[in-house]
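Subject: sequence -> structure tokens, single chain

Hey, anyone have a minute? Need the predicted structure for the following. Not urgent.
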Amino acid sequence: MENGNYHLAKVPGIDAMLIGHAHQVFPNAASKVAQFDLAGVDKAAGLVHGVPTTMPGLWGKHLGVIGLHLAYDGARWVVDKRQSTVEARSTQLADKSFVAPDLGVAALVASEHAATIAYVKTAVGSSEFRLSSYFADVGDVTAIAIVNHAQADYVTRYVQTNLAQYASLPVLSMASAFKSGATGARDFTDVHAGNLALNHAADLYLYPNTLVAVKVDGAALLAWLEHGAGRFNTIDPAKRGAQELVNPAFPSFNFDMITSPDVSYEIDITRPPGQRIGKLRYRGKAIEPAQAFIVATNNYRASGGGSFPGLDGSKFVLASPDTNRDVLIAYIKAAQRLTFAEHGAQRSWRFAKVATAGPVVFHSAPGVIDLARAAGLPAVSLLRADDGAGAGFSLYAVDLSQ
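Reply:
Had a minute. Here:
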């Protein structure tokens, strides 16, 4: 369940909640996140139905602190929620420096820290090309196709061995870019060519999801892709001013895409959400509404995460005990060396071609335009090395007519 803590706070006897799933900062009076404006939520004081609650963002950028005020009622200690305090303290100071580490704690965990770093640098294979998500929103699948390869391979082998009733069905896979600049210009997946280690697999697959396969028909597959295409704003071809490509309220991890030579489709972002997917084909033939597929994904998505239509936990054909990341690691170990032709170039989708009067723009890290060229994206150009927003991004454009 998304935002399950909202209901949990209504349970008697809960004195405080430390939450995290949405990766937001709470309390935060200035936040525009919809769930922080629900009835019973005080985003300034940090209360959910009166329960002191904190969510400290992500990547250790904040520390959630709840100060419970205790009172003795003559029989036991109880929490006075009215006098308790809630904070989400930033680890970055006003001058952009960071809080100093506690030397005592650092010394206590030094050996474990060193051992962890050594472990995650364990090599599992190599890649002849760079795998990145800087241009995932405009068609670079180098950091996504390998995940789809691994998931589809796992599910195909399992179905052929254990699920004879589905052995004749095509196996597809859905994956997305987990890191696409949401928290800054350095928040992108970027694995350089060369040796691949465990930490690189964690960069490619960020979360500890488990692999799940679902059975869907062509209509459901279309609806799945339509929902993911909500990542983009609706573009007006006649508008002369710049138009932003990406809807910042739609997270990149909900932009699911297929990366298979067997599947092709277009995304027409001049049309409203829900009407954007066109020319959806499997092996050159239009996919029929009743046509059956097995789709590899993760437990979050298959159980309803992201509110994709039809994905509610009822369509499982396989619920693997293995995490998607471990499946990816095993695939890389078996392949040993990734090549661009086999593992990085399987792009299934394109933007529908349309000429626009003004530029369609998006923001990504500076100094990476060569990666767009390497990924085969000639329609992408650099407009400004600094987009002017003060967050370190460059401004790029995509020519939808190409």
